[in-house]
Amino acid sequence: MSLPFELFIGLRYTRAKRRNHFISFISMTSMVGIALGVAALIVVLSVMNGFQHELRSRILGVASHLQISGANNALSDWPSVAEFVRGQPEVQASAPYIMAQGMLSFGQAVQGTIVRGVLPEQEDKVAEIGQHIRAGRFDALKPGGFGIVLGADLALALGVGVGDKVVVMAPQGQFTPTGMVPRLKQFRVVGIFQVGMYEYDSALALIHLQDAATLYRMGDKVSGLRLKLDDLYRAPQVARDLGLKLESQGAYYISDWTEQHANFFRAVQMEKRVMFVILTLIVAVAAFNIVSTLVMAVTDKRADIAILRTLGASQPSIMRIFIVQGALIGVIGTLMGVIGGVLLALNIETVVPFIEHVFGIQFLAKDVYYISDLPSELQWSDVTMITSMSLVLSLLATLYPSWRAAKTNPAEALRYE
Fold this sequence. Notes:
The model has no long low-confidence stretch (mean pLDDT 82). The chain has 2 domains: 5-58 and 264-414, no CATH class; 65-259, no CATH class. It starts with a helix and ends with a helix. It is an alpha+beta fold. The chain contains 15 helices and 10 strands.
């Protein structure tokens, strides 16, 4: 026999039909429970990873890696600052912007919005608005043309399309003989974008930088500069380095994307950890059902244990026999869960729409959640961690019953046989 006898007997016990069918039922329940827990962990963590990736890509499709602004949200020497930051090794591109609040009206519809003045040719280098245009053209924003590009949900709320004219009202008023009145300017819709994030699609309007300076009376000033970096994950470090270098040139405020949207990513990360702990408890409960299985198996095999002991088997050998039997349940359950979880995680974007279509439901309402689709990003490091955790829990569950089996007294076990 090439196999060690402990492994041989443990595998034989696992395959053999038992007189007590309840033991087999508990073994199968434990195996299925581990499989379901492992699969649920893989799918949930993959969905959490997908949310994090999707949230980051959609935010950075409109936002920037870094923003540099001056006092009172005004930057007067922005050309020199732009030239300086473009000379930094980790900065790919920069683009000036003017950010202000406004109100849009069309017919009887009125919507509050964030108005951002941009230079289209430079904005495309720091963001991906141009890639998300659904109607019209982003480069149709011309200086003095007073064109405007709206988010899809904002355009829908106003009931406008490309070619329609909307009135933009600036909150800064002007004095007239009849009193203070807001400044109004008519803009023509030249484009509609949709990034898939409700916050931007419903509340962002883009106009040319020169038109924004005219509307908000900024003169030669801008609100700040938007930067794109080689490595977005180094944004906090680059922000600190730039802050030290620009400190001698004046008062500048530098913020990175992790600060501007920290609550989103912190919430997703916290939810991921909580879900991992909760689902790990499910795996632990299923794994420790192995304890019940092995305790009853030890009781069922007391005579066999006694005979093995009289034939010279040591206590550690008896322990290893039942560890093999219990660990095999954990290994099979874990493998089933890994295979099922990986397959579901890789196809979640197909399975979920199918379920929504069949039952006529929508899991993520677009007006409630920032992301209306259920994304998934399988990370093999998570699969490895979950697999290791499940196997360790299964192995720990075998120790006490195996120890009890090893302590069986042969004389007592054979007294009534």
